[in-house]
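Sequence in, structure out. Go.
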Amino acid sequence: MSDVLAGIGLVAAAGASAAAILLPPGRLRAVLMLAAMVLFPVLIAGDQWHTTQIVDLRHDTARIVELLVLAAFVIGVLAYFFRRWPVLLPLAIVFTLPFRIPLHAGGDTANLLVPLYLVIAAGVVATAIRDWGGWPAGPVAAGDPPPPATAQGVVPPTTPPAGGAAAWLARVLAVVVVLYAVQALYSADFSKGLQNVCFFLVPFTVAFALLRDVRWDARLLRWVLIVVAVEAVAFVLIGSVEYVAKSLFWNDQIIRSNEFHTYFRVNSVFWDPNVYGRYLALVTVVATAALLWARTRQAFWLLSGLILVLWIGLVPTFSQSSLLALLAGLAMLAAIKWSWRWTLGVVIVGAIGAVLVVLLVGGSGKITSDRLNVDLSGRGSLVSGGLDLFSERPIQGYGSGSFQAAYKDHRANKDAPVTISHTEPVTVAAEQGLIGLLAYLALIAVALWTLARGFWTSPPAGGAVGGTTPCAVAGGGGSPAVTGPAGHALSPSAVAARAAVLAAFVALLVHTLAYAGFFEDPITWVLLAVGTSLSPVIRHPA
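Output:
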């Protein structure tokens, strides 16, 4: 594949997936989603055409046919189930989020989200059949017919309103996706930029479009909680077996490092202990949100037991970034449930105390750059190197996906491996310059605005909004008026879900400041999609 064709295909795939989150359900959106899902494997195959594995595959026609038939069969079966039972689509996406399949290519190993890709493709097929056949777009993406409006309320819309925070989030997200693809055209490592777009941005954007169509009622939210809870407990059991046996299933780098450390890190089914820790931290935040709004004694004790198990699993990861992320998510829940002022005060005091501990533990009474670099496992050098790259090309950067190549060219030791800066803003600044950094910051701001709307809004005069009683979700200065479409008060399950999504997003954001992987983690896109669907429409009286 020529560079020109690869560039055109890359921008086309990103544009198609971005348009899918801007357009309402219909034939045009269905065609664009299908085009995006077809283009991304074609572009990957073209980019990796001369690698050892693709060369071997090209000479084995029977194997190619078998793989294509198997993929088509799995997608067809899943699409049938998603059309027959639409609730399975969001559950299947959530279920497949953690699972990566190791594929060896060109002497390197890539851990790909193959199960998630198959589920997304099947969801696109099911949605395309619905939209192309002219059936009404139901509250679930795969085509469940919408229930009629009742006297108690109005059925929530399947797509966000034309204006407001939800619409702005979709627009900024579309800009970020297209911009990343365009900036990959001049990247110092075009192949890496293409892989990031095709493996992450394109399929995850399509998944965002599918999940945003879902009507997240209390029943579906409970099932999602059950799915992530069961998965997390299973991962903790696997990690516990690793810890007791002092043996890991994979990742030779972690296996070697465990031989030289006084502690033993586990990764369960995940490649990296930090990613495993991130997943457990996020599930813990979600479980804590459900606990804070639990209405039965049975639910309270079940969730308490779940949180205890998750904590037992999180400790042997020795992931400092995951622990910080967990604290950030819990602080956000405290701010929502009780008081943001008291929470902010506690966070400030805790941060000062942590700094004092770091200063005093070493005995020197001061923090040096060398000491910080050692304590942070060399990440100080990566951050400073990324900032140097940004200073050299502050406007456009070195191009999407170029951090590894650019960093390697600008340092003395060119043999030591490095892939990311482990700090998302630094990676974005070095690769995309001010242009990409502003888009990234705009996305964060709009996402927080969308997910947090209504939590700290004082009710208007008269108390009720839209003729109903606001749902109180916080203390300290007045209960906020959190309402759904047409001003109706959100149910407790919806309020708990919105709090869980916001807190989990904050936790994920904090984790990416110490580990990166913001756009590459499908959980980011799932949280944004669910938060958009649950985002309230605040309507004040005239």
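Check: Residues 136-162, 459-481, 483-488, 537-542 have pLDDT under 50 and may be disordered. Residues 3-145+154-212 form one domain.
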